[in-house]
Amino acid sequence: MSLTQNQPQQEQDIYLYDVINTLRRRWKAFMTGFLVVFVPALLYTFLIKPVYEATSTLYVKEETAKFDINEVLMPGSTSPVEAEMEILKSRTIAEQVVRELHLDLQIEPSSSDASCRVMTFLSNDTSSYYLLTLTGSDTYVIENDNGRKLGIGKSNLPFWSSELTLQAKIKGKKGDSFKLTHLNFNKVVEDLREATTVNEAAKLTNVISVSCQNTDPELSGKIVNTMVQIYLNKSLIFKTQEASRSVNFIEEQLQGIKDDLNKAELALQQYKSSSGVVLLDSEAQELIKSFSELEKDRTGINLQKKQIEFALASQQESLSQGKSYSPAVMKDDPLVADMAKQLSELEVQKRSLLVEYTMNHPAVQTIQAQIDELQRKIRGTYETALHNMSKQESDILIRLAKYEQKMREIPVEERDLARYTRVAKVSADIYTFLLQKHEEARISKASTISNINIIDTAITPDVPIKPEILKYLAIGLLFGLMTGCGLALYAEYIDDSVKNEAEAKKLLGFTHLATIPHIGSNDDNPQNSANFAIIAHTDPRSAATEAFRAVRTGIHFSTINQNKQVIMLTSAFPGEGKSTISSNIAVIMAQTGVRTLLIDCDMHKSVLHKWMEINKAPGLSDVLVNDVNLIDVLHQTSIPNLSFLPSGTTPPNPSILLGSSAMRELIERVRGMYDQIIIDAPPILPVADTVVLTSLANIVLLVMESARVPSKAALRIRELLSSAHAPVAGFVFNNKTMNGMNYGYNYGYDYGYGREKDLLNKKRKQ
Q1: Per the domain annotation, does 557 fall within a domain?
Q2: CB 109 within 8 A of CB 115
Q3: pLDDT at 265
Q4: Structural domain of residue 385, as residue ranges?
Q5: Omega before 618 within 30 of 0, i.e. cis
């Protein structure tokens, strides 16, 4: 594979590594964002009350049209599953559940061992709560929110007062109390509807799943079962509504006919006793029989008219609720029976289309238009039947009038007996006819069953569905990481500090000599700071040592044909690793056999003497004020070819001493004593010492720590060094705190040195 083919992958790796380094640099921002999101998620997961879900399943059976001639009046409407689900989710059902289970009553027991179940609660008082306090094993005292005693109640028995009606089953010990708070009814109803889920278990199965979530597992099961039972009762009431109307109408008619029959029979007996006439001739008997038949036909027509009127009312009610209505009367009529069959087929086609389309689809609208047209035809058929029955009733009235005229032609002695006999006969026949129809209607009503069957009742759930600990923690972890990364990257975005060599080179305009990687400790005792502060001596095969050698090489090639005997190192701020780099460059120089002198000119904050294990004073400052001789403070270190001049006693005015002629004379003197002089100068921005020292150096190196120096500070450094005409050879980028880029300077440079060092350490311990 060619190099050009590998290049995109390398660029991607470098970009990912940049992001990782950014997160390392901004670990505080990352942890802040992560904890702000993850800790609340963690607390929510473990502090939230467990939520349980109880479920019941119902089967909605398809209804088919019934063609029983003896059926009086039966609802044959088919309710689609969608309509049944909407009824289950209705506010009316939820309100009845809240009332039946007293969900709008909050019960707060004073003890976890005490329990209270309310069966009846009616209050006409404005008290916000009532307090029940046990005075015995099953007796309690009731007080309102003002502390006024309402009376003494007993568990499981009703309690009445002018303000409150209560029946509750209470368990607990003497002294336990229960606070009964009446919650906002509408709010409780809405909360119940939100906690309830009604949906079809699977398409075309006609199986409805009813679920409810609650923190009380037992209550969740009660809510679902109560809701289902209320729904079934309502469904059955709706389906028997027409039949109930018919039965009630016949019962009203029966009561009136029964009274008329009793009066007619009593009047007939009294007339026979008083007149002595007990028999009618055959002509009168035949006339009375005809009267009775016509009156019975008239009563039957009136009953059929009422049934059709009830059917029309049921059809209008069903259509207003979006339900389909199937004819329930006149099913012996072939036209009505055919329309009922067509309705059933169209409903099946409509439901099949609704699986894939909505009600607005043209195909569904076409089927719906045909259904609407059939409903109009059914209504027209019923209205025509009513009109025809009215005409039949008029014909019967005309015929009755003719028979009435014939009755007047009967002899006077028999006329009154015929009149009494006719009333009794007609009343008896009509009463018998209505009894028969009443029994048929009652049987038809009793045979009406709901098309909704319960498959599974809700049981008390054992395992909560919320919180899903692993899921919540995973979500919290994911969003925490995203927030942490986002905050870290945002902090990086608004941070104008110099983070890499390219930025530094662009701002400073100096040559980049080398990048010093993070220096760790390879020593068994990390408390010994000299082991990693002078790592070029303690670990000559480390990546950092190779970087210091790169600095030496960079100095050589950047100052060809120039004097580079005196090298000064400075930085923008304290703590950027300037002294560490100075000491290690001095070690590298000494390792080449060059006589090297390391001078600590940082009189403000000197640290080199600790690493060299040499006293700070007397030193440079003492020489400059003529307190000691130079030869007395030049110390030969444990490193061959490396001498060290400590900073000495801290003076009140270091810049005056460093800018004095004595300092210039000292540098000129040591030039003749050493081949290489390394000056560790103070930082350039806080103090003016460095600007003074630049005139004494042949080469100035600037040390810059990654992600430490703002861009404006870098520009200020450039301005100061430029105005001082400092001989800047370049800058060294220091990844002191691992905040910058790490380009991996190891490249396998140990050559087994680490293993050799481990063996030497083992021998020393032995």
Answers
A1: yes
A2: yes
A3: 65
A4: 241-447
A5: yes
